[in-house]
Amino acid sequence: MNQSFFIAAVGAHQQLKRLGVHGNNVANVNTYGFKAEKGRFTALMYGNTQAVEREDMPYGVGTALWHTDTDFTSGPPVDTHRDQDYMIDGDGFFAVVDLATNDVTLTRNGSFYMSELKRDSGEVDEAGQPIIKSVWYLSDQEGRFVLSETGGMIEMDPENPHDPQPVGIFDYNNYNGMQHVNDTRFRAIEKNGGLRVGTGKLIHGMLENSNVDFAEEISKVIETQRAYQMALRMVTTSDEIETTINGLRN
Questions:
Q1: Which of 149, 152, 195, 184 minimizes the C-alpha distance to 169?
Q2: What SS3 state is found at 126?
Q3: Sign (positive/negative) of CA torsion 209, 30, 218, 220?
Q4: Strand partners, 224
Q5: Radius of gyration of the chain (CA)
Q6: Higher-confidence position of 50 and 248
Q7: Helix (H) or strand (E) holding 241
Q8: What confidence tens digit (pLDDT) does each residue in 12-25 have?
Q9: What is the dihedral angle through the alpha carbons of 116, 169, 209, 69, rounded to the nearest 10 degrees?
């Protein structure tokens, strides 16, 4: 089969992956704290053969979506006037912990809620049974709890939920390579450096909207669709050439 067939087939497949990246950005244009992703392509084989001094060595068989970069620039503020909404003006993240796994992840989505936990009070009743009390904490309403400035969970008074809470802001030296956990949560890795206190300012009653540029993403979607169509035309043309050559041989 002609080499052009495989180059075009790989190209079409990779453009589909790129379309998924931009489609996900468009789908989250109104998701609080969402950070847009941008696909980065690389030439296949070229990087592994550029030092080989052989004229007959092929220098590239198409391109591939190598990785996606996350745009961590701040999104526009949204004034919600809600008691448990928080926004970071500047650098940093909120930290939330999953008590089942002790996994701590980072987010810019400050839409929080009060969640109830049943805790042993350390006392017993007349029958000698432990007394269980309800304690309310600030959470993301998905089973994770928000960490305070000192790294502990934030206990709240359900009778007085209006006061601002000491929500912690945490940061890293660089964001390159942070793992996506879901659309708005990230997990730091070793290359991000050591954890430090964030320099951003905590704002109560506001949220950070998605930083997706809708017009740019739609143009990228159209561009990717055109590239996909061209790759498929190349596949069809290459197949027709191969069919013609086989016909001549017969």
A1: 149
A2: coil
A3: positive
A4: none
A5: 26
A6: 248
A7: helix 214-249
A8: 888 899 999 999 99
A9: -120
